[in-house]
Amino acid sequence: MSHNNSYYRPLLLLLLLTTAFRLVYVNFIELAQDEAYYWDLSRTLQLSYYDHPPMIIYLISLFTNLFGNTELAVRLAPIIMAGAITVLVYLIGKEMFDDYVGFYSALLVNITLIYSVGSILATIDTPFALFWLSAVYSCVKAIKTGDGKWWYISGMAVGLGLLSKYVMVLFVPALFIFLLLSREHRRWLKRKEPYIGGVVALMIFSPVIIWNAQNEWLSFKFQLAHGLKTKKAAGLPSFMKYIGSQAAVLSPFLFLACIWGMAKGLIVWLREKDWRYLFLTSFAAFVVIFFGYSSVKAKVEGNWPMPAYFTAVIACVALYSKSNYNKKRLLAVIVAGTAFLLTAFAHVQAISPVISLKNDSTNELHGWKQLGKEVGDALKLIPKDLTKEPFILADSLQLTAELAFYIPSHPKVYEIAGRGRLSQYNLWPPPETGSDAVMIADPGVEKDPYISSLFEDIREVKRIEIGRGDKVIRIYSLFHCRNFRGFKG
Description:
By secondary structure, this protein is α/β, with parallel strands linked by helices. The protein has two domains: 8-351, no CATH class; 367-484. It contains 20 helices and five strands. Strands 2-1-3-5-4 form a five-stranded mixed beta sheet, covered by helices on one side. Strand 4 and strand 5 form a beta hairpin. The model has no long low-confidence stretch (mean pLDDT 92).
């Protein structure tokens, strides 16, 4: 196929429609727990953080300082970045093949559940995806043009990706595999430019290294243990859950299409020595296989292999475009149609439930505003010591973050430290001993020996039921706690 401009207008229309939809849609759902957590951390900027590198936190800080503490402001960065991701997918497809492949790859990405959700929620995955694709595009340009400066740009993108999510490190071995296997491009391994690009990446990533060095390498240790440490419950069942999660976040038919695209792409490369299919397959298959292996040892979250499917989708569209359209048209409609229907269902379910689910994950996006208002009203009824203002305490990281955002005054909320997994909250100074506290937690938590040891007296003041429609989705108790004695451990 020849390059032409016939898909520029459809691409612009796709960008305008998807961006407009997201700008409106995000106002109908409240912050997910991770989003609220990143927003809360954005009020205290530092070089890096325990759970993740700082990129999404910096972006949230930028837009909330500009536009206020609203759901839209928190999510503005991923909405803008989603448009840039669409353009990059198009450019990679166009640069490697033609406008047809570029446009339909970008379209398919936008109607796929995991990428569509990532375009509206302020998580680490959206900036990570943007910089992953930026690095891929820069490598394509370096390979096609022979111009070494593109390796420096790729190094910048890798560095920014590492500031977004540690998984960006997988880009390096995926690229190395391609350069090693591609005879015509192996010469780059003897050139200085890719290595200088690596140095640039490390320089950009250096703030995270410095933070870890100052904090006993806590973040690196946590992420390595979180993703690679062998768990007793792993093995074949964990691997099957991994496969199921990939089918769920992509849609079953698109997942199978991506696996086919990787396998077929490898075959085409072996037969025709077409470097493009080796390139796309290297970045896709390596990531999928890496996390497949990891899933045998420990649980792998469904979104972790996300970057693999960008190049897998491009490979699928490219392979489809070089085949007999008529014979495979129905199959293409089934793959794209089921992906779109799953995505549409998830978006509708998140606003107004279409079906009643026992464990509806979209419930996470509702009820926090109600809880924040009720807690804010109840705070006025708590008797206050003459010298010390009561602090607010929650029994989980997620609840701590949601309360901090949705209590109207956006107060400082503390997480109970000394039990459960460590978080950034636990690295910050604890409340002052001798103070009273208002604790929001699950009913009956005052009977927990550890929690009861933290205070002289704990009394339930109010029970709060959080509803979605006519269904109660969460129940919390509000306690007045006297004389904080300090966290243990």
